[in-house]
Amino acid sequence: MASLLQLGQKPFLVIGRAGMDIYADPPGTSIEQAARFTAALGGSSANIAAALIRAGQQAALLTRVSDDAVGRFCLAQLDAYGIDRAHVSLADGEARNSLAVVETRLENCQSVIYRNHAADFEMTVEDVEVVDFSRFGAVITTGTVLAVEPSRSASFRAFDLVRAVGVPLIFDVDYRPYSWASAADASQAYSRAADMCDVIVGNDVEFGFMAGRMEDGLEAARSLVGAGAQIVVYKMGEKGAITFTAQGALQTGIYPTAALKPTGAGDAFLGNFIASLARGDDVQAAVLRGSAAAAMVVARVACAPAMPTTAELDAFLAQHPAPICA
Question: What fold does the segment set 4-17+46-65+82-87+122-319 form as a domain?
Answer without folding.
Answer: UDP-N-acetylmuramoyl-L-alanine:D-glutamate ligase (3.40.1190)
